[in-house]
User: What shape does this take?
Amino acid sequence: MAATFTALDYCLFGAVLIVSGLIGVYYLLKEKWGAKEASADDILMGGREMPVFPVAMSLVASYMSAITVLGTPTEMYVFGSQYYLVAFSGLLTYPATCYVFLPFFHNLGLTSAYQYLELRFCRATRYLAGGIFALEMLLYMAVVLYAPALALNQVTGLSLWGSILSVGIVVTFYTSMGGLRAVLWTDTFQTFIVVGGLIGIISIGSAKLGGLAEVWRIASEGNRIEFFNFDPSPFVRCTFWGLIVGSFIGQLTIYGANQTMLQRYMSISNVRSSQLALFISLPATMLLITLVCLSGLVIYAAYATCDPLLDGKILARDQLLPYFVMETLGTVNGIPGLFVACIFSAALSSISSCLNALSITVLEDLIKPTLDYCDVTLSQRTEARLAKLLGVLGGLLVIGLAFLCYFLGTTVLQIMITVLGMAGGPLLALFIMGMFMPCVNAVGATVGTIIGSIVIVWIVTGAFVYQAPLPELPFRIDGCDVKDQINDLFNQFTSHVVDFSATSKPDVVTEIMLDHSVDWMEKREDKFTLHLSSVRKTMLLFTGIFDKMF
Assistant: This one.
């Protein structure tokens, strides 16, 4: 039986929100009582004098999201440990970012990375890139806010709308009011919450199973341990080449051409300190990936002989981690609350980073160029107030889109997440053309970005529509509770009977019952044969009764 939330759990969850909000209040009051009035640069860029450590932790938090914390354990559970190699692709991504992209943008002294595109190409290119990024961030933040709220609601019973509203309002408040300084320090706090929560889940979970060595043994017997698949085929889901090279390119779209990351580099006063912050974040990011992957193996070890999805305990595999925490660790006082705090800390850190970057992009790349074209100049006070207003409007829009996700359904969420990943490729290509290809002009860059984006959307849409089968590793259900299975089958049978109208034919009932019985029998081991035979006879008896009734 899964545990439910206690007063302590709600207190832990509420404490994370309160502390995050208080950090925003602190920097709001500090700005109000400061010796000089804060400018938009102070709010959005931290005055370009931020310390190295909070920037490094914010870089980790920007990479981390609730989707990462929920999705990566599922990846390990379903497809095995090969995915862990993405952690080592950072050994290529970070040096390339440190010595190519970071110095280039830092030395330009810009507020928005997309300002460079106007200097190199034209204003239309800047508008295009800023618009793509703004749309990407809005959709991404909505998914990051909605997805964990939905997963936790279905497994823990935590209010879906209450979670969305509370997290959305808190992150909007401290991001818009406290600015980048509040974002960086809350990111630091939330990163420690996430890491601590994952360590607690892994420690307690593995201890219940007999230790990490036993977890590794069970995972190995279940064919979940694999690291070096050197198959060169691009049709194999996870290979060494795909994860190292592919993830290098994918991470470069984030670290080398994304305003969320570039903004953090430029919030530090000099290039050397920015490079130090990035290199400090590397081991922290690798630790985070290690923890989420290891938690997936612990979950597999716990359910190696009884898959929760096949057993009917969960509706989707993304609920594996919440279900494991509530069903296996929920009896430990405070663990459910710590887990929920961990998940929503990841959501808060991602949304705050993206919301701050969105405010900069809209202000610097969409509003100010338009006002300059109309010969309108904003005062420092007006610009600062507009920056805060954009943060509030952006947060409210994200909350609205998160509510809209409820009516769009899970399939649309998968499309949205895929589209978000597509936006980074054209933007990275645009920056690379500007930096390394002097022969590319404004028309070629703009048209190429549009055509490239359309082609990628077409490819991904086709891949989604045709749904190529994914070779999942085998799952077992021979360790499931027989009584639960009998009750589940009986409930399925009675639900079908209730749904039939008076005009339904009895042979339809018989056919459905036999299909369920035969399918269920094929999934069971020999030791369940006697129970299944009895169940089948019982169900056929019920069918005979309905024959006579109708």
Notes: Residues 490-550 have pLDDT under 50 and may be disordered. The chain has two domains: 16-23+49-375, 482-549.
